[in-house]
Records
---
Amino acid sequence: MPSIRRDKETNLNMDEEEIDDGRKRGRREHDGDVEPEDDDDGDYNDNISSPPPNKKKKKKSSDNAAEHSPMNDRHINPTGKPAEAGIIQEVYVENFMCHRKLSVKLCRNVNFIHGQNGSGKSAILAAIQVCLGAGARRTHRARNLKDLVRKEAGADCSGAKLRVTLLNKGSDGFMPEVYGDTITVERCISMRSGGFNGYKLLDQNGKEQSRKKADLDAMLDQLNIQVENPVAVLDQEEAKKFLTGKAEDKYAFFTKATELERLDRCYANIHDNIMEQQDVKRRAREGIQGFIDNTMKLKKEWEQFNEIDEMEVELQRCRAEGAWAVYKEMQEKLDVDMREAQKFSKSLEKRRVELANYEAKLNVTDDEEIALKNQLEDLTEEARLATEAKRKLEQDLKIAENPIKAKERDIKILRTEIKTAEKKLKSARRRLDQARQDIIENQGNAAEEERTRTRKIAETESDLARAKERVASVKEQVRKFLREYEDLEDPRRNANEAQNGTERQLNAVQQKIRSLQSEAGGGNNTLAMFGPKCKPMYDLVQKYSRKFKGPVAGPVGMYLKIVNGKEQYAKIAEFAIGGGNLDRFIVTNQDDLKLMDRLRKEVGCSPRDCAIYMISPRSTQEKYNTPAPPDGVETVTSVVSVENAMVFNFLVDFCKIDESALADSKESSEAKLLSENNGKYSIRGKVKKVFCLPAGDLWQVNKGLLNIVSNDRPLKQTIGVDRSAAIDSAKHELNAIQKELDRNKREVKAIGDQSNRAKREWNVHKKENEALTTKITKMEQLLEELKEQAEASEEVPTIDTTEFENDITVAEEELDDLKKKEITISQDIESLQPGVEELKEKLDETATRNGKILDDMDKVEAGLEDIVKGQNRRQEVVEKCKAKVREREQALIQQEEIVAEAKETVANALLAARKVQFATNRQEKRLEEKEANGGIAVDGVDDMNDEPSEQDLEAIDIVEPRHDLKRCQARVASREKKIENEKMRRNLSEVDPAVARDKYLRAKKALDSKMEQIEAIEQNVKMLLHDVKERKKRWVAFRAHIAEMTNLSFDEFLQKKKSAGQVEFDHDHGRLNLIVQKDNTDESTQTNDVKALSGGERSFATLSLLLAIGESLETPFRVMDEFDVFLDPVARKLALNTLIKISKEMEHRQFIFITPQDLSNIETDPKLRIFHLKPPVRSSMVGGPQQQTLNF
């Protein structure tokens, strides 16, 4: 019905932003996701499409309808290939409903499941629903899962098992590094107590990876699988409700299928919450001003009590500082005098050493020269003896080597004789063989038995000879490999010990690295230290990193390290930064700020958790240039190292870390940073605040006044120490030790391989030797038996071989004797070898000692030469040195007298300073106890003894004054005058300090509580209002877009049957009506009442509406059960052809159609597969269960 369709192109912008539950919306283009577009102007309802007028309209040509059809370019695979993630590859059921075991392997595009009623078609749909998270009631087949277990399995059935295998390829795959190309969801339904009931997630190899329902939900959310959405999975019950429902029911079905209903409920709840919080905020603001005025009044009253006492204590401190300034001046003068005395003393000592050296050289006597000559003679004699010993050892070595050389010559001769004997033996055997061959040839066939015996004797003797030759070489190999194995035992043991030692070193270095890393802290595993939401927030930022338009940093604490060597300032540095800033995240633009706000809501952050700070994009390039800390103190920038430029610049801009100084104590920091001019204070340099150890107390100057803030909260440290240099050094050492260990292992393996090879060879040759010995014994016995048989034979050979046999025996005995002599001589050589080696070692030792003696002789000769030269010149130098020594001695005596006087003056100044400091400490203690008591003086404190003992004075440490003496005197005078004026101006005797303090603290606590509540409410209301407005605006546009696309698609589907139609939406009243024109060329066939249509026409129209609504879904697969039961043959054929065509065009989606109707006219191909289920077994018993058809 072209007249009903809208011809104008609709340009509604879909926002792909994740709404509430993070599900994906919107379509994808071939080059990526469509960017979200927000409407900045207009009211919510501007985009609501009003219901179309219920009247007949003129038709337009079908060509014009096709030209403007949204079907022309809708079903194009965005990626140009079949879907890779989320579609069903296989469904497997076991003992489920009517199936004992069933496996259905689906194709990626179109699947038809066909079978008679009762064959188990819908059981496959129920298995998909149950396995992918739906409950038993959602299947409309049972109230609980146990009712779905196959009844025919009997009482012994343990339960049912379901598996659904999903493809998990491509960029949309769920954790492909864990599950691979497929994910199998296994659902177990146990009928026995103690059995497993739940889900299992299996990877592509069938290995279990998880049993958590949360992981299943995350996977379904990632792949956008919605088994409880009636459009995605339409079972028989939902189809019945949709077919017979009213306009309101169809509209409710539409909003539920598109999730518009759930989102609308969520927005209504948010709006109610906003109203409640605004009412609470209004009531809180009405009563806050009274709290503020009362608190300020009480604070002013209470603070007046402490001002006079603090001024008096400050005066005493100035007096103490003046006393220490006097001591410092005296001490500095003493230090100058002592350095001068020390300089004279060092010069005198140096001159005395020079004089002693020159006198020692001058007083060298003839005896000393004679001693050196005697030493030279002794060394010469020792060298002669060493040379003779070397010569004797060389002779002994030659004598010791003579027997070895002689025996080696004997072995050489023996080996020549052995070769000659072996040749004689072979020659004798050839003659014997030839004689026996002659006997055999002469005797002919008559003496066959004798010839056989003779042949055996010849063969046995030949084999025996070869075996004896072989056994000799084998014995030699046995001895050789045994010696080789024994020689390798000590190297093998030493190599193993070296390897074990290296492994111990390696373990020690690894432990050291772990300890350093533990001290360093930080990293991904310790993010929870900065806040409970830091770790999940950080994980989400990493997950959506590609959606950010600029760099993102956070949490701030993970980029901070304490500089090595400055660990004592770690806690106050973190206190100066502020613990609430360590969990912050930093962005550079508004879009990233909005995205971070959404992530905070998804994590569930409160207003104080993981706050977002936006800086300029220029601040991400390099760190700000900050001044160096003042002399004697540190700043946060010098104590904390920040590796990220964004974080560093944020801390400078927001936390002012370059203006926060860190000091060991309040006194030392004031001395180095505080200055006063005409009663007004100022801080040197750029420093604005000073934090002091140990408690983190803070002082600062505001409008010339010094403000001191005490910290009562305990300090903590979450920032790690920078141990990177130590860790790198340890890792370098670890690499070196690892390489050494690898070398040790290779050496152990090489020696082990050699030892094992020698042992194997020794065993092989030993076994071979034993086998040959046994074989020789057997052959000798056999040969003896054959010879006895030959002697007993009546047949006497014509040729006597006894002489030849005797020749062989003589040759063999001679050869054996020679080999025995060879073995004996070899053993003698081995026994002589240790003595020769010992002589060689002694010879090397003697040669080394002789070389050392010659070096000593050279040194003694050089000493004698120095004694002879320069005697007169040394005498002249000695006289000059004596004159300089006398001059230095006189100067040192005078300087020591000056130092003694200065020490006495310093001691007196120190005593006076300690007495003043003792009085100051007593006064400060009284003030501290008074402050600790709430501003009230403690009883008995004024009775303390103000006269210090010697022990008390000795216990007072020397204090470094901040100002010189003149400045200290001026400060004392200024404070005395100020105190006098204040005492005259004030009269506070009639006020109770304890009561004023308690009133102030109670009022302040109440005020702080009210302010925190109002601030939290304002922040929540502001965020909720902005969020719900944006969401509602997108929701209205989203609803209008889906309604318009559903209307156009509905008409397109009806056009396939030469009909037309329109979906009439009444969003205000929640109704959905269908307008159908049976003949798209005849306006008179248009009707607003679907009930006026035939059953097939009504079913086809309803099916078209279902397909139109489904166009808005992005679920990877859709299932429709018995969708064609009410269609007439023509409508059913058209509907099937339409479904198949549309489904094939949408090859990035999978479709599963379940029907009991005939499918014989559908041809299968690679994109379409038909599964025929076996018909059910019908009971033929009278009164037994029969197949039934339910009336819809």
Note: The CA atoms of residues 665 and 694 lie 7 Å apart.
---
Amino acid sequence: MTPPPAASGSRRKSGRAVKAPEKFVPDAPTSQVVPASSKRKRVVDDIENGASESEEEEEEESDDAAESAAEEELKETRKKSKPARKPAAKKPKVNGTTSHQSAPAVKLPTRPKKAKKVAIADKEAEGLYAEIYTSGHHTDDVAATFINDYREAAPAALTGLVNMVLKSAGCDIQVTEDDINDVDNVEAKLGELQEEFQAQNITDYPLISKAKSSHDFRNALVDFFTALVTTMGQTNIMYDEEVLIENITNWFVTMSSSSSRPFRHTATLVNLTITSAMCSLAREELEKAAKIRQQVKSEHKKGANKARNAQFHKNIEVSEKKYEFLLTKINDNFDTVYVHRYRDVDPKIRLECVDGLGNWIRTLPDHFSEGTYLRYMGWMLSDTHAPMRQGVVNQLYNIMKNPDIHHNMGTFIERFRQRIVEIATRDSEPTVRSAAVALAHTIRQAGMLEPDDIDTVGKLIFDSELIVRKAVVNFFMAGVEEAYEAKIEELGGPEELEVLAVDEDDTTSPRKEWIKLKALAETLALYDTEDQDELPSQVSRSADTDFLNISHIESRFTLAAQVLYERMGESKDWDILASYLLFDHSAKPRGNSKTLRTIIVSFKPTDKEEIILLEILNAVVKLGLTHIDESEKGKKKTKDELSEAKESTARRLANLIPRLLKKYGATPHTSTIILRLEHVLNLGVFQELRQDSTAYAKLLDDISNQFTTHADRGVLAEAGAAILHARGFEELEEVTENKVQSLWEDATNTLNKINKVDDISQRGGFREPVLVELSHNLARLDKLSSISNCVEPLESNVEDSQPSPIAILIDVIARGVFEQENPDLDALEDEVVLSAIRSAMFYFMWKARSLTESISAGNVVPEIEIDNLKDIQEVFITNLIAALSSRATNDPVRLFATGTLLDLHVLFATLRPARIAKSKAGEAKTQNELLQTLVKEIAPEVQAELTSIFDTAERTFAKKSRRKLAEPGEDEAPEDLDSEEDDDDDENATESERRSETLKTEQHLCELTGKLVLAILAKVIDVSGESSGKLSARIQRNRTRLGANFRDVVAYLDDPKSKVKRSHKSKAQQAAIAARKSEKSRELAEEEGEEEDDPFDEAEPEEGTAEDLRRRELEEDLPVSEDGDGAAEIPAEGDEDEVMGD
């Protein structure tokens, strides 16, 4: 059992406090300060508990380091210290303060409600503070002045130093020389200062101030203490008068454990700076001793005299003693400051610690690269604060850049390698991940990274974050270089490659660069793993995101090529890349060389690698054309030279695309990639140079050929985009329009031909080859309808006895009526119906546009045209309703037919008289009456069917997303639980598949709800009969239960609210202002005199009505009701937030 402090008179021997020393200290002379080494470490241990307890009340304590960190620290602590003693009994007050054990824990003040009081650098200060921050003197001179002052009056100099640090922490309270002399009272005095300082409610201090001068303030503080310690070492005062450094560290080590954050942060920075400066001095002494030993060896060979050798050995001994002294002080500071502060609750203090430790390791690698110190770096890799993790990674990167330290880092890297790789691949912050990638690259260069880890980090070339992809470029290219060198070795070494072409202008013959392109494609193909869960941050492939429209999204290979563009010259030159892709690897080489044949076979790309290289070519061409202006301008070329460079590039690309299509156009995937090249082609070159129009016509022929030979929607989309791109140039419009008309003729002729085979409206009436041909043709019609006006082509009749193409399309929709299941053809039949619905809807959209334009221009639309359109519309509606009603589940046909039915009614609702301009006066009434026959309301029985479809979509999404729906109201029909779809497949689905399925169902629900809402707002559904308003109420039943997207869609059903001008003044103030305005108006009327009443004046509105508010400018104009001329109802005060957006 440990005796009480009063009975203990012996001084401790270990580095940790186990016994409290006696309080009696003899008075020291005024010219000398008592050493404080015996007090420093005990004070740290006593204050640490109070500081941590207070900090826990201020904010949540951050997560400690890894569990292994706590266990290892516990072992180290048990080795260094004796068993813990019980709390000492209460002591009488010493120097006016209560004992540490009996005093209550100091609590930081709560955050003040007043404006923050910020402590900044004081420009009016005096003394050492002014010398450091405002005098402009060099810190070396200030440090030398302090040393001189210390030699003349030690207590006064130390008093100024401590007061300077206190003021640097934002505290204007000062200590006296008596406080400096009383080394036993340091803890109590700092406690008093802390309480008085916290009472001032200062929430900010210079080190964290956002003022522009805060950075200079910190640098000045660090530079001063660095210069001070350096001067102390150079003048030997540190070694001759140990009391100086002891008392400095006594105050600042104690202060670093304060519960006041400004005190603790400032003192921690000071202590870390002192330790860093000591490390630099220790390194100088090591280097000095090494140089002297080298001199001793040289002198020994020369046979120097004994006196000289003795002097050398004496100098070595002096340097070693200084080194040992400094190492002792460094270890003391590490144990008393760093060990406690590296896991401080304040991340800024933790960041100071990691910067300090990184500096020490680089300065004294032989001492600090031991596991005892490096483990702290590993533990801090798991810090919850992102800038802290980034700081640790940056320090490790700086350490690993020094090859001389690699031999000491092996054990550390082996232990924490997986954590570093985990940060690089899975950290939540992209900046931290990019820094970890750079660190992984240095570890790889040191040969300490495992092959599996290399592949894991290399896959980040597909990462979704640009900053991470840029960071991994060097790492990735190192792997490509290794693969390239391995291929060269397999071929027999660089000597065997001499048979390849070396002429820079010859881009068609095999060359050495093709081997590196092969290595690049192989590496990307290897990293294109199927396991997306391994790296969740990667850019997904289209197959994983088929619920999104990704037709214009860059592929993962294109994104990778964009960051590799500047780094890899072989891929940057797209002529070399194109020649590699166009090369015929099956052809015999010149001279029938066996060696050349072996080389050619070795770099032949596989099918997947060809796709990857085409993606890279696509990206490289785009980047090259984008940067051509900047690169040419940098060479100060004339305007004609710039124009010539653009023309040359456009011609080369226009000639390249047909050659690529000839070789790779048969496959939809490769054809899609090649067609994207046309989007960046500068067609203005062909517009300006008409003699080159034949080259463009040939290119357009190849694009049209791809359109007619492929039914893949990706190819059709890219070909359609290329055609639209060409139509944007006036000079090329005629050539393009002729090609579009040719495509229309081919598509409609094929449709008429298929219509003659059998009844095109009967599902199951065609054999599979005919059905496939119909599906492909309708896909082309669908795309053509979206890029050009389809009214004329679809209404034209080739033969009078044959129906028009639009009539045939409407008949095809009748195939959507589901009668008997046919697993072999059902998917194809449904695809045919979907294409027909889309094409027909485009027809109605183009038709409605032409009607609106004609009426707006004052032209009369023939009655027969409106009657024909009405007939087609009715058949279209009938077939849509028949298709969606025949299906029991919400399959694609049912959902799409439902959405199209709603879109059609909303489309023609725009033809109401209030929405369009009037035509000629004599014909306006008749014209509008005819148009109104196209505006139809959805029948109640159809509305019931649509409500059932909505119910199913809502329940499906709720089940997939695990949400609970509200119970039906008393006046609503009960839920049809028997119609719910079985989700047996969900049990075996992966997390990614379930997430994808949930997003799909949410998309279907929100799309359907949006179309229903538009129909309700357009007053084509839920407006008349017994079911009026029921659909709107049904949609809003679960508006708050199905996520933010659904809620925002349903919000458009809210009645439009007027935007009332909100005043920040009280009602009494507003009433007073209104009274003053009324008084002024009355006085003005009296001045003007009485006037006769105007019989045509409007009557004054009743007070408080909307008109009265508007006239008094207390409310903006309210929307006018469609049913009358009156103003809309003023919204209730509680509904002010439920205003429908634009």
Note: The radius of gyration is 42 Å.
---
Amino acid sequence: MAANLKRKRDNESQPGKARKVSPAPSHGTEEESENSENAADEEEEWGGLSAPVAMDVDDGPSSSKPSKPPTGVQVREMREAGNLYRSSTFKMQIDELLPNVRPKEKQKASLEPFLMSLYKCLNNIPSSPPIQPLEAARPLLKKGISVPYSIPLPSEDSNWKVAFEPPSNITLVGSWNNKTSVKGMDGRSWGVDIAVEMPDSLFQEKDYLNGRFFHKRAFYLAKIAAAISGKKSGLDADCAYQSHADNPRLTRLVVNPHQSTSKLKADIFIIPVLSPTSPIALKRLAPSVCNVHSSDARPPTPLYNTAILTALTPPAHLLAVHKWQQEAPAFTDALSLLRVWANQRGFSEGSGMQVQGFEGKGPWWTSLLGVLIEGAEVAGKSKRKPLGRGLSSYQLFKAALDFLGTHDWEKQPVFVKTKEGHLYAPSEYEEHHSAVFVDPSSKVNLLANVPIGSLDLLRYEAKKTLNVLATTSSLDPFSEAFLQEQRTLCTRFDAVIRIDLSTSMLHDIDVNAILDHGSRHNALLAAMSSRLRQGLGNRTKVVTFLHPTPPSRPLSQALPSNPNVLFVGLVYDPEHAFRQVDHGPDAKDSDPNNAARFRELWGEKAELRMFKDGKILESVVWDVKTADEKSHLPVQVVRHLLDIHFGVKETQSWHSSYDAFIRLPEPLSKMYADSKLPVGFKGALNAFDNLVKSIKSLPEDELPLHILNFTPVSPHLRYTSTFSPVPRLSSLPPNASYIHPMPLIVQFEKSAQWPDDLQAIKKVKLAFFERIAANLMNAVDGLTASVVVGHVGGEEDDPTLEVLTADGWAFSIYIWHDRELTLLNRVLTTDTGHINRPGEKKRKGHEYHEAVAAKELYLRRFIHSPRHHRAISQLHHVFASYSGTTRLVKRWFAAHWLLGGHVSEEAIELLCAYVFVRPHWERDHDQNPDSSLGAHVPASKERGFAMVMDFLQSWKWEDGVFVHLYESSDSEQEEAESGFSAPSSGVWMIKTEVDKTGKVWTSKGPDAIVARRVQVLAAATWSHLKTVECDGDSVQPIFTHPTGNYDFLVELDPLVLPRYHQNVHADLSLLSRQQGRYSNLKADDTPMRIGFDPAQAFFSDLQRIYADTFRIFWDPLGGATFGAVWDPTLREPRPFKVLGGFSSAPHNDKAESSKKSKGKDLVVFNEMAVLNEISRMGSGLVKSVTVK
């Protein structure tokens, strides 16, 4: 919305000295010249609050004078701004926003002549005598104008007549008159409401029956449309019909002046209304009265009655708003803030995904603030005390959010205070409306047609905004509250279901409901909303319908055309969303109707079941086989209810499509299912526990020191590995035989017997491991253990114990000895550098640089990794969707060839944690386990993934980000901060309480090039995500990496890649035993090498050897292609020198050589030599090298 906001300077609303505001950055000279020439007539685009704004005070002719200190009045104003507006900066942002969401005075003036002409036209429309309804419509139909008669439609037997007389009064009503208009969404025009009062002589006392009032109103509106659209009117404008909330009874006429008539883009809405002296009996319009007689049974028609009463309210609302503006000076600004906030979240009209029930709810928003100012009452007694009328606009806005976030609409009716008393008893509204908010005239329930699910979403959004405004983190609360559009489905809801209503059937809807709602479509939506909320129960916090606001229709179309596609948004309650059994009434229940209602709701799925406690209950059991199916259980419930009650079979939800990207291929999954081995995260944790027990149970005399503890530091043991961990099976094909080791850290008791030398400590570790391995293999059958020094393509030579259990689980164990850090610091502080020549800058020796790298590795492995592992594990247990979110995001990074080689897994885990945690979340969770699950927390992995993509595409990584992950002590912070002195090439700064630099997990990447690439890829992903639910696109492109920008590609042989089965686009035909290169090699003869991945080793070699030649990318999860881009600085010829740093060849252009080299021979980069060397190094692994 920020891009569409217009600059506005209202002198009346901005007292004091004028401010000069610098214009937004220009995007072209033609646009600049055009804006300058038409500055007086055209609207100036607002650059938004993120652009730098220079604010100068015109204190004198010269700006070179030194600035004066603030006066006492100015100091008091600044202090009051901090108290009343959260901060003085926040107040400045509000002052900058408000003029830009209101119409400009000059353009408002340009509309006045047209309004005067329209006024004259309406008064000059000739009268027409009473005539039968259908006969009256025929002459108009010949002119191309249909009369929008609503149901029940008039017939030839109708014994009443319609007529037309000039309006008895014409009033400019609504926000335009009260100067509370706010710019709408999606470039919508300004709205100007004109109440045209129909003369009393056109109506009779019983016109409230069977739609007679609406038929007379429709004919009156059609006559006005014929007069305005006729040539004799002299009005240069277009006319159309528009039905409020798709209700044909609330049709209004839309008059759109042409640009030649008015420079303001505005829609004028002509609304026929009743006079206060109308003969229609108001006592017959109570919510409990039936006024549509279709059968012997006459149920109440509260919505029908409310629609008639709406024709009496526009003038009353106009006066009420004027009164509140006089009583509370900040009312207008607070209302503007509230409407901007609501518009950004779809609680208004728009072409995006708008929340059902909030079209044309301007009177409700004003009445909401009116309740806060005057208070509310029930049965003449005060129920809500009024707020202070001297509140600032921000305070009044926050009070409105607090009311919306805490009010229970189903149980707490609201009645605006009125001096004349209430027209109907409060119990009338409560019994026949699901939500009650009676307007200042005490006639209309403003929430009569608003579903409870939409109000639930409003409460949810209000709570979320209050949390943002109260936060002290690095978020920009003003931008998130007022500027950022919040209508995107994928980040707003945990699940979105697309429904095709074309196949729906009215199983649960009777004729009376259709007559009350005004159309089959509205009755169907109301029934669906009620059924889904009843069936889902406490599984969800929000169940709401969303759809674009229907556009206006031509005058030749009498009734609105309802869309067939509808979207259902679900916000889960993680505590209850995924239960597999729904309990109903007891079999011994004294009221048999309870069991009948339960079975009617669930159909054939309802059954009697006996439970362990002996109870026999009506129950519904949902059949789920995997954890992925369980995570989509609420969607399964919605589909079942829509099918059995409404015959809707065409439903789509793309959330289950993500599961395939973090799941093994189907042939391998079947192998593990047939093996009956424990798999998944629980299987890995059980294997870890069994290994620890086995080692600790070894005889004490076999170990030189007692073991204090084992600490896991593996994503597989904290629920964040991309794929669920599985053990090694001997029957797997060679290209699915990778054995992933899970690193562990073992700590022995302190002892003075440890040597005081780093190399000697490594020897002692080797001896410890050798003793443990020998005893462990003797104690546990089928277990193998081996001591390893160094890793292929690795960065360290610290001894490791690799263990492969009998079930196929692999572990790598490291020994933590805290004395090593002291010895490394001693090396770093000892002057052991080179002997320098006189005047030469002192250089560090090789030993120093090795110690720097060793210390960095020590701190990362033994200090930060265990702490990080504990924190991430706790996140999994607190936030159910965190694990799935992290796994999807890791898959995305890997699919785009960035994981591991450029972005560490720990950095990704922290970025994902950022969208879940807020300050003090851990303490709040300890005090109340449900308090940390705030409105901002996603309850599904798909929503969490979308939120991370949204963050990445808009993140200013130059400023870093702070993740409130720990609540550590000062000693822990000092220990962590003392560690990182190693040079850093990464540009991301992901700070935590124990990492103030933000470089623990980003010191080696990503660099600026990769960081910008991540942002571009995230922006493309985010753009695609916004279209998935609406347009039905597949999520497959999100995980498909583009290769067009690489200079060359290295294709690998998938048959020799042990992780090929994890490839995002794996060819399943290659995952078979017959595809092995040597068919005579038996499965038992295949060597079991833990952590061996030739592609990873090859990638690491290329990345190290050619660091100054090209930048290389690869998917470590089964990727079969390397992509690389040349260093662009190597393209230019340069003079030859020894140790030039790249492969070179003599330059053939001698003329250019003599010109640039000044007598020296020029060399150029030898691309073919490098490519040939890559092929040679990857012999047996590389299939081809393709130059792009």
Note: Residues 1-65, 969-974, 976-980 have pLDDT under 50 and may be disordered.
